[in-house]
Design goal:
Largest sheet of chain A: none
CATH superfamily of the largest domain in chain A: MetI-like
Structural class of chain A: mainly alpha
Shape of chain C: flat
CATH architecture of the largest domain in chain A: Orthogonal Bundle
Number of strands of chain A: 0
CATH topology of chain C: MetI-like fold
CATH architecture of chain C: Orthogonal Bundle
Strand content of chain A: under 5%
Strand content of chain C: under 5%
CATH class of the largest domain in chain A: Mainly Alpha
Distance between the termini of chain A: 16 Å
Distance between the termini of chain C: 6 Å
CATH superfamily of chain C: MetI-like
Number of helices of chain C: 13
Largest interface: A-C, 113 and 118 residues
CATH class of chain C: Mainly Alpha
Number of domains of chain A: 2
Number of strands of chain C: 0
Oligomer: heterotrimer
Shape of chain A: flat
Order of helices and strands of chain C: HHHHHHHHHHHHH
Radius of gyration of chain A: 24 Å
Chain lengths: ~290, ~475, ~300
């Protein structure tokens, strides 16, 4: 949907444009500032982190990042470091797996809920949603017990299954909404041309709902990546994701803010890459007109 | 033509060259051998349980940090494979309790200690260590030297299982690896500059805080303030114990809460008034590290809390006030004595452990004199739990330098009267949380100290009745 | 394109169920832990006192109702969720419109909007906690002092603690709402707008009578997810105020967690969790009703 209301420039218009630009600037500043602060913190030495008044100008150091990857064996805090890369890898595996599984199961489910009429439809749709109702502790101890008994504890597959609680309801409902936006006529036309439901799904629906899919994918990925409470209890050292890894910088006698900040920023990188990649699908816009 | 002297010369040269080549290798071998050799001195067969596996759950702490690089050494010594998991204290507690309650045995060697034992021992989740210690096939007492540990710390880890009493008697459940007591860290430079008296009573402390705020422009003191039991456990509880001359306990023999003692009410009033008047604006959500960082940043005049925070205060890389800190006993009660609380982390063993002897080997190795010495000297594990480590010249040099010697003097004095401040009971977190909420209500003047403590009293009584410990 | 269609042909009658099957299978596996949790709420289950375990019917719920903290946390939970979601949806709509239009800097805005979502809530909360420090090292108060606003006791005062949580929560979740609404805006059909252009409708009327109704399903969807999460907000509070000061930020989830993981009283913890669950259920049910009606009306 583009701006189609062209008007001749007036002072009012410039004022509006200025106001909007200001709004954008404020929004960007508000969004970016905490990141800016985390970045600064990750480059600070401990003394600068606690400085009062807070330091915006200081001598930066790379030792926090170095500590993440190289590790220091003597004198300070050896434990989190060698594991950080493994936690990172775990996050990638678990999040991709969880989102992938959710899409696999969610796309057909959303299609059915969007297009078909059948008994219990709304009840089933609501059922999907309802799994996101429960506070995590409702599931945590029972899941913990169950996982221990079935050997799913501390495994990728166990975590990917548990993460469905986070991503599947969301995926189904989001895709349902986007699928419903696609005009029926397009589908009917394809069916008249002889497409089966599978053809319609893969050749019409999916391509047309790309922005929606992109949004669902990336938001789902982020929810999974940022999950903390489930992996804390259901994962062990081999499968901890970065979220649990990042809090390891809280030690008994000190909090290593610099390193925690560095770890958090490094953990953001895959999501950044994914979002840049997905951006163009969101931005592309639906060219409905092209189909007509 | 080879004369004898020439032959001798060649032999000499060749010999020196050979030695020169072998020396570094010899050093390395000697180094590693020296490492294991120390343990081989013990008259036990370290390799008895070769091939077994152990999973260890520990919380994040300098002591546990110190163990990690040494684990390969343990594996080489015993042939036991070790898998470990490290988490911050809160998260560790949750995961550990889940594992213990299900008796899964994922955590074999665990970080326990006096207060935690009270929660873990009654349900039968821990194994007493006495039998291991007495078994000559598993422990060499002359080498391990149990008597080298501070007696008060060993006593703290013994418990006969009776609630509201019984610490110091009964089986030994865990071996202490560090200790902490509570002292008053204060800004010596500011106190001297503005001629403020180092407080010996709590009324003086409130006055000192006031003066710091007025004259130096920073908060008079910081203290923990979140609405949970760690807020109570350190400076506040030590204050209560001192103010009641060490004779009061929060639960009596019949598990009745004792919060409504007039001295406790009076002290709580002094404490919250002092914080409201001269303490930090956001006292109510200050954790231990908020307090420590604020003090280390030079933003407060006093911090009545863990003694070993001095390691941070005195490190110029982490603190702006290195060299400016004084250490004193916490103020005393009316009778003139300070009764500080005591806390100790200790290694214990889960009952669900499948290979208990192997786990004992780990505990013995990890708490041996040399391992603990390494933990303190190289990894800043304070305060040491063994006398030999405390008296080691390297330790003395570092700790002796803090506060120009004041730290060691104060701590040693403190340890004469410091004791575990809580009464053995399995609901310490809940009790402490309720108490901390009462402090909040007093601080924000929603209730008077009497009302707040009465309410806490009733709530705690209800809890103990509910779990069947109180009639 | 609504939910009304001709009745499915016979041979396709089973198709929807087949399509739903994998998803349902995954979730059905979760029913067991759920019922286990619900069962625990009807027992006196203390992790540390296994000998006290027995079925107690609704005793826990009775105790819950008598607990003064229950009333406080219930009010805060509902109040917070209402304010937070309203604020975030309105702001989110504004941001989505901004992102969708042709204004200067929107490329930068688009790139940055996703960023808050990339931070785990725990880390976000810790970072904001440092920024909101009321002692000298807090950057927020420092910046405010430049414009002459006095130091604010963000997390430590009864008055501002809830507001601080709201700020942190909004920072982290506004992008979520904006993105859903942006996706919705992008998928809206052209025809109504072309027609409106032909008719010469004003910008505001276009927004009010075309955009808003068409966008309603997405607004309701975003609101539903936000309501579910706002009612259950936990990580942010746990990392900053822990329910304080003086219970100013105590919500039901925090109570449930406290009972279950601090006091190891599983029965009570699950009871609190079930009450919270009921709350979320009711809110979602109502909102889903809205969604259905909104979705039906967007037939083109």
């Amino acid at each position: 949907m583009r701006e189609r209301f062209a008007v001749s420039p007036t002072p009012m218009l410039w004022f509006r444009r200025a106001l909007l630009a200001l709004a954008v600037a404020a929004l960007v500043a508000w969004t970016v500032f905490p990141f800016f602060w985390i970045l600064l913190t990750s480059l600070k030495q401990p003394l600068d982190v606690i400085a009062a008044p807070p330091k915006i100008v200081f001598t930066p150091t790379a030792e926090n990042y170095g500590a993440l990857f190289i590790g220091q064996q003597r004198g300070l805090y050896a434990s989190a470091r060698p594991d950080f890369l493994r936690f990172f890898f775990n996050s990638i595996v678990i999040s991709c797996g969880a989102v992938g599984l959710s899409l696999l199961a969610g796309i057909p489910a959303s299609y059915a809920l969007a297009r078909y009429n059948f008994r219990f439809k709304e009840h089933l749709a609501f059922l999907f949603l309802s799994f996101r109702f429960a506070p995590f502790i409702t599931f945590l101890i029972p899941l913990y017990i169950l996982f221990q008994q079935t050997g799913l504890y501390n495994t990728y597959s166990g975590l990917i299954l548990a993460y469905q609680l986070i991503s599947l309801p969301f995926t189904v409902w989001m895709l349902r909404s986007f699928f419903m936006e696609i005009p029926l006529e397009v589908e009917e036309a394809a069916k008249i041309d002889g497409c089966s439901w599978w053809g319609v799904l893969t050749r019409i629906i999916l391509p047309l709902s790309l922005p929606g899919m992109a949004v669902t994918l990336i938001l789902g990925f982020m929810f999974c990546w940022n999950a903390f409470n489930y992996p804390l209890m259901l994962a062990g050292r081999q499968t901890f994701p970065v979220t649990v890894g990042a809090i390891q910088f809280i030690s008994y006698e000190q909090v290593l803010w610099g390193q925690m900040a560095a770890a958090s920023l490094v953990a953001v990188v895959p999501q950044l890459i994914l979002s840049l990649f997905v951006q163009k699908y969101i931005v592309r816009g639906l060219t409905m007109g092209a189909i007509r | 033509m080879m004369t004898r002297s020439r032959l001798l010369l060649w032999v000499g040269v060749f010999g020196v060259a050979a030695l020169a080549c072998l020396a570094p290798m010899g050093e390395a071998v000697a180094g590693e051998a020296a490492g294991l050799a120390y343990f081989q001195q013990a008259k036990i067969n370290w390799r008895q349980f070769e091939g077994q596996k152990l999973t260890i759950g520990l919380n994040k702490h300098p002591y546990t940090e110190s163990l990690l690089p040494l684990i390969p050494e343990f594996e080489a010594l015993t042939g036991i494979k070790v898998e470990y998991l490290i988490l911050p204290e809160n998260e560790y507690g949750a995961k550990l309790t889940a594992d213990l309650s299900q008796q899964r045995g994922e955590f074999t060697v665990i970080m326990a200690g006096a207060m935690r034992n009270w929660g873990y021992v009654p349900p039968g989740w821990m194994v007493p260590l006495d039998d291991f210690l007495k078994n000559p096939k598993l422990t060499d007492p002359a080498w391990f030297k149990l008597e080298d540990f501070f007696p008060s710390l060993i006593a703290a880890n013994k418990w006969n299982g009776k609630f509201a009493g019984g610490t110091g008697e009964g089986p030994l459940w865990s071996i202490p690896v560090m200790s902490e007591s509570y002292i008053l860290a204060y800004r010596k430079d500011l106190f001297e500059q503005h001629k403020i008296k180092v407080p010996r009573t709590y009324e003086e402390m409130a006055e000192a805080a006031r003066q710091v705020k007025q004259k130096a422009g920073i908060d008079g003191l910081v203290a923990r303030g979140t609405a949970n039991f760690p807020t109570i456990a350190t400076g506040y509880l030590s204050g209560v114990k001192s103010y009641t001359d060490g004779k009061w306990a929060e639960l009596d023999g019949k598990m009745n809460a004792q919060f409504t003692d007039p001295r406790v009410i009076r002290f709580s009033q002094i404490w919250t008034d002092m914080l409201r008047e001269s303490g930090p604006a956001n006292w109510a959500n200050m954790t231990w590290y908020d307090g420590m960082e604020t003090f280390a940043a030079g933003q407060a005049g006093m911090y009545p809390d863990c003694d070993f925070f001095a390691a941070t205060y005195e490190d110029p890389k982490k603190s702006k006030i290195a060299g400016k800190v004084g250490y004193a006993l916490l103020p005393a009660g009316p009778a003139g004595t300070t009764y500080s609380g005591l806390f100790t982390w200790a290694l214990g063993m889960s009952k669900a452990t499948k290979n208990k002897e192997a786990a004992w080997y780990f505990i013995q190795w990890a708490t041996s004199p040399r391992t603990l010495l390494n933990a303190t000297v190289e990894y800043k594990n304070y305060n040491p739990s063994r006398l030999s480590v405390m008296n080691d010249p390297r330790t003395q040099k570092v700790m002796g330098g803090w506060g120009g010697g004041e730290y060691l003097k104060t701590v040693q004095e403190n340890l004469k009267t410091a004791r575990i401040a809580w009464v053995p009971n399995p609901e310490r977190p809940r009790l402490g949380d309720t108490w901390a909420r009462a402090l909040h209500e007093m601080y924000f003047k929603r209730l008077t100290p009497e009302q707040a403590l009465q309410r806490a009293n009733d709530e705690v009584n209800k809890v103990f009745t509910e779990i069947g410990l109180r009639k | 394109m609504g939910t009304q269609r001709a009745p499915a042909r016979r041979r396709e009658a089973w198709l929807p169920y087949l399509l739903l099957a994998p998803g349902l299978l995954l979730l059905v596996g979760m029913l067991y832990p759920f019922f286990l949790g619900a069962y625990y709420s009807l027992t006196s289950y203390f992790l540390q006192y296994p000998h006290l375990f027995r079925f107690v019917w609704f005793d826990n719920y009775g105790k819950l109702l008598q607990d003064p903290l229950f009333g406080i946390s219930l009010r805060f939970t509902i109040g917070y969720a209402t304010v937070a979601v309203a604020l975030q949806v309105i702001l989110g709509l504004g941001v989505a419109l901004l992102l969708n239009s042709r204004i200067a800097g929107r490329g930068v805005l688009r790139a940055t909007m996703l960023m808050p979502l990339m931070m785990p809530p725990v880390i976000t909360a810790l970072m904001w906690k440092i920024m909101m420090a009321a002692t000298g090292s807090g950057i927020l108060n420092y910046l405010l002092s430049w414009i002459g606003v006095g130091p604010v006791n963000w997390l430590g005062s009864v008055d501002f603690a809830a507001l601080s949580i709201l700020i942190i929560d909004t920072w982290g979740n506004l992008p979520f709402v904006s993105l859903i609404l942006l996706g919705g805006l992008q998928s809206l059909p052209y025809e109504p707008y072309e027609a409106a252009l032909v008719d010469g409708a004003s910008r505001w009327n276009v927004f009010r009578y075309i955009t808003l109704p068409l966008l309603k399903p997405f607004i309701v969807l975003a609101a539903t997810f936000r309501v579910m999460d706002a009612l259950r907000i936990f990580d942010v509070i746990y990392a900053t105020t822990v329910g304080g000061p003086a219970d100013a930020t105590m919500n039901l989830h925090m109570r449930a967690f406290w009972q279950a993981f601090q006091w190891y009283s599983m029965g009570m913890g699950m009871a609190y969790a079930m009450v919270l669950l009921l709350l979320v259920f009711i809110a979602s049910y109502v909102l889903m009703g809205y969604w259905k009606r909104a979705a039906e009306h967007t037939t083109v």
